[in-house]
Design brief:
The N and C termini lie far apart (about 50 Å). This protein has helices at about 5-10, 15-20, 40-45, 50-55, 60-65, 70-80, 135-155, 160-170, 175-180, 185-200, 205-215, and strands at about 25-30, 35-40, 85-95, 100-110, 120-130. The chain has a five-stranded antiparallel beta sheet with strand order 2-1-5-4-3. The chain has eleven helices and five strands.
């Protein structure tokens, strides 16, 4: 297949492509906890020049990330430093002088050079999740699938008996009926429910049942 000269010239300028890409693209140095490079789009959107971002160090993320999401930056760094192949997730970001938080989907990879054996450098790409999308139905299905997958992974924390108790709760059975069906005491069922709540991180029975339904039980 023949490629035009203009296309070859443009494709060869990878820096131009990254700078024009409508995404926050940056390389982070985990040893110093600072961003050592970012694309022009990121400077334009955040309102900070690369020199300012470098000078701010880890405080840059505190400046733009939602307080409830900031810990994810640390979680991502630790995950990749421990050998993770990638880290993906969602977070809320608010740029300089902006009033509204925006949702972003991000992915980070170790940026390994030939002469490097460590994992100090990470390349990260963040795309804004726009409220207006051309495929709203698919977006809804995506989040339902992701939530169900994540919730189902929690089932691995439960014993077989605890799974049986949770399934019966989701089906609407009362504690005395669960005890009769499983041939165990009323108090044993209560203990199972207590352990299930602790393992799944919920406090109320109604929240536990709702979580069980989300798991597809």
């Amino acid at each position: 297949m023949k490629i035009s000269v203009n296309a070859q010239t443009f494709a060869g300028s990878w820096l131009d492509i990254l700078n024009k890409l409508p995404a926050l693209v940056y390389i982070s140095n985990n040893a110093t906890k600072t961003i050592c490079w970012c694309n022009a789009y990121m400077e334009e959107q955040t309102g900070f020049k690369l020199s300012e971002i470098k000078a701010m160090g880890p405080d840059f993320f505190k400046q733009i990330m939602h307080p409830n999401d900031f810990h994810l930056a640390i979680v991502a760094q630790r995950h990749l430093m421990r050998g993770g192949k990638s880290f993906t997730g969602f977070c809320r970001v608010r740029f300089k002088k902006a009033k509204r938080w925006k949702w972003f989907y991000g992915i980070a990879y170790p940026f390994l050079l030939e002469e490097q054996s460590n994992r100090d450098l990470f390349i990260c790409v963040f795309m804004e999740i726009h409220h207006r999308t051309h495929t709203p139905h698919q977006l809804t299905c995506l989040f339902k699938d992701m939530l169900q997958y994540n919730h189902r992974s929690l089932l691995g924390r439960l014993t077989d008996r605890e799974k049986e108790v949770l399934q019966l709760l989701v089906q609407g059975a009362e504690i005395k009926h669960i005890a009769h069906q499983l041939n165990i005491s009323f108090f044993t069922v209560q203990e199972h429910i207590k352990h299930i709540k602790r393992k799944l991180g919920v406090g109320k029975l109604s929240a536990l049942i709702a979580l069980g339904k989300d798991m597809g039980l």
